[in-house]
Amino acid sequence: MSTGEGWQGSGGHPLDPQVRWMLRVALVIFAYTIVIGILNGLDLVEFSRQQLLSHLHGGTLGWMTLAILGVTLWLFGAGESSTTARSARVLAWAAPVSIAAYVLAFATTTGGLRPVAGTATLLVLIGAAVWAFRRAPSVTLSVPHLFVLLGLTSSVIGGTFGVINGLAIAFDWTWVPASFFGAHPGTMEVGFIIPVAMGLAEWGLRRGRLEPRVTRAGRIQVGLMFLAFAWVLGFTLAELDEVAGLGIVFAIVGLGFFYARLGGIMRTTSVAARSAERHALAGGVLLGVTIVYIFVVIQMAGGDFMQVPRGQLIAFIHLMGVGATTNALLAFVVHLSRRVSPATMVDDVIFWGVNVGVLGFVVALTTDVRAMIVVFVPVMGLGLLTAIVAHVGPLGRGPTAVPPPAVATPEPLG
Ligand code: HEM
Q: Structure pTM?
């Protein structure tokens, strides 16, 4: 049994090149989402619905999902056997290719090509889930591992709804129930992105040194997040949208367990130090804001997610996507990057730019003060673009081999 590879001394990870490659592609695709976001926020370009959908999927699939698949290889790939290593290497190529094609399809077509690229991406998600479950007995499972397993399973369910919806749009399939269109984002948000962001924030806060076993509190936390997902999905499919939103209560209690388990570490993590961990801290805090925010706005809209005003819905998506998940992923990116390049003032520009920017953007969308959008969207966007420019290069370089400890040559006597 190998333990989950910690951040310290992680230079020897067998899938290091594959993971860095996936993160680099993910960051490059994210740049596309960011540029559209900045141009949109500054009202410089009027984007079509389709282009806005590609902005969304560039962020959710191109950046978050691809990077999460990279993290999956890292968490479950430590000390892997040659058979699973071969499948991991196939995944490391198949995932960027299919996901990039899918994002491109969202930008260019509503026709049959979109579900074709979607099916390829779904196969990759199935492959990743099967790979991780096969690897699970050989690694010491921790709460982040369980969240990744839950997230991958949900991504397969959510991806299946997505592909069916794409086929329904392309071929006018009227038999597809309307609830499938709500089930796709519901599953991806509550079952995939939020639990994985929770796991990643813990991984980052613990600096990669995960608990050697899943404690009772950890099991309850994962169980509550699973319940939240199952409740939301079940009642969305039953077309009881007012009841579906109540599932978030389980996530709020799960959040309580997250803070109870990690509060001590969070209190001692400084936002002033130029560390990878401060991104995990911001991710953990903003994950809480995300979950409470969506619960409150759903209740203010009479309990129905579908009735939440558009601005608040968009605010929730950016809190979840940028505030919680991007921060949690950046913690890992910064850690890998630091192995080959030192921290500088640029780290502060990234950290404060992303976080002040996303909070300002969320306040602007919630209060509908458009003038604030013009200020905070570029702040957030430039912070993120700086992160990409700063880290894509270092991610291309593997860790420098640590020289073996020098063997002391005995001084000749006399
Ligand atoms: C994690 C990645 C992201 C996701 C998942 C995401 C998702 C979305 C979604 C779903 C919309 C609504 C589109 C519609 O009108 O139907 C949207 C709008 C928008 N996004 Fe993003 N986005 C992401 C990142 C960004 C970034 C990095 C920026 C800017 C730097 C940005 C700026 C905007 C702006 C300005 C709007 C329009 C807001 C409005 O209509 O007032 N987004 N985004």
A: 0.92
In a domain, 322, yes or no: yes
Is any ligand 1 atom within 6 A of the Cβ of residue 204?
no
What is the Å distance from ligand 1's center to 341 Cα? 31
Residue 96 CA to residue 62 CA, distance in Å, equals 8
Beta-bridge mates of residue 2: 139
Top mutation candidate among 29, 55, 367 for ligand 1, by most atoms within 8 Å of CB: 55
CATH of residue 218's domain is: 1.20.210.10
**Tens digit of pLDDT for each residue in 76-100?**
998 766 667 889 999 999 999 999 9
Looking at the structure of the chain, the number of domains it has is 1
The predicted structure's pLDDT at residue 7: 62
Residue nearest to atom 30 of ligand 1 (CA): 381
Q: Does 401 map to a domain?
A: no
- 402 belongs to a structural domain: no
Which residues of the chain carry a pLDDT beneath 50? 1-5, 8-9, 404-414
Give the pLDDT score at 399: 80
The pLDDT of residue 126 = 98
Ligand 1 centre and the CA of 410: distance in Å? 65
Q: Could you tell me which of 298, 294, 316 has the C-alpha nearest to residue 306? A: 298
User: Could you list the residue range(s) of the whole structural domain that residue 346 is in?
Assistant: 13-395
81 in a structural domain: yes
- Identify the pLDDT of residue 6: 59
